[in-house]
Design a protein that fits this description.
Elements lengths: L1 H38 L2 H14 L1 H19 L3 H6 L4 H27 L5 H25 L2 H9 L10 H25 L14 H21 L5
Helix pairs in contact: 1-2, 1-3, 1-7, 1-8, 2-8, 3-8, 5-6, 6-9
Length: 231
């Protein structure tokens, strides 16, 4: 009986982790979509781009933490996480590159914002290059989870889900992450004020164009690989 109660408690932890990951993923996706639209008009909205990029750092930390928690639970042989099973093998292969590229994209972007201009060629090329690689990986990642995330969020807000617990806590975590990100974004935007004087060409940035084209082909390749095997 004691073992059963322990297992039930661990299974609830798995479900809570899954639902936290889902709601944070939804928050991040909405922010990413807005930022991609803003990036298409970077010559006029550079400060908005800097603010949104910084705003999303908070939810990104939450998402990486929740995913890392599942990773740790599965590979340390936690019975509940083992029972949940691993992510799709293709997504496991993509994950290290996606995480590394995401970190490089955000870190280079924050550093470039503080630099005050695109004169730092290394930072500029790093940010542009990681952006071009990041968009197709994001597209494949979204395709792989496009069914799972809405279902997990819907289950979390269904009345029977109260047995799992922690629903309000998950919401508060994401709100707090956005508040911290917004405060940091306001501070960084103020520090990045010299960017207001930078005149960027009024065209869609080429890294975004390349990324969107690569995303189209990336999803086409992912469809047969992930069909019937999406989480």
């Amino acid at each position: 009986m004691k073992q059963r109660r322990t297992m039930d408690r661990q299974l609830r932890v798995v479900v809570r982790n899954e639902r936290l990951t889902a709601i944070t993923a939804a928050v991040l996706l909405m922010g990413f979509i807005v930022d991609l639209v803003v990036t298409a008009n970077l010559s006029r909205l550079i400060m908005v781009h800097i603010f949104i990029g910084t705003l999303l750092v908070g939810p990104l930390v939450v998402k990486l933490t929740s995913v890392g928690y599942r990773f740790h639970g599965y590979y340390t042989k936690s019975p509940a996480f083992v029972a949940k099973g691993p992510p799709n093998v293709w997504m496991r292969l993509l994950a290290p590159f996606f995480i590394a590229d995401t970190l490089a994209l955000f870190i280079s972007g924050l550093a470039l914002a503080l630099a005050g201009s695109p004169s730092n060629r290394l930072l500029f090329l790093l940010h542009a290059g990681t952006a071009a690689l990041w968009v197709p990986m994001l597209a494949v990642h979204v395709y792989a989870h496009i069914r799972q995330v809405p279902r997990a969020i819907a289950r979390d807000w269904a009345v029977p889900s109260r047995a799992v617990g922690g629903r309000i806590k998950r919401l508060r975590i994401n709100i707090l992450a956005l508040i911290v990100g917004a405060i940091t974004g306001a501070i960084l935007t103020s520090a990045a004020a010299p960017w207001r004087q930078v005149h960027l060409p009024p065209v869609i940035p080429s890294p975004l164009v390349l990324g969107l084209v690569a995303a189209f082909f990336g999803v086409l390749i992912a469809i047969p690989l992930l069909r019937g095997a999406r989480e």
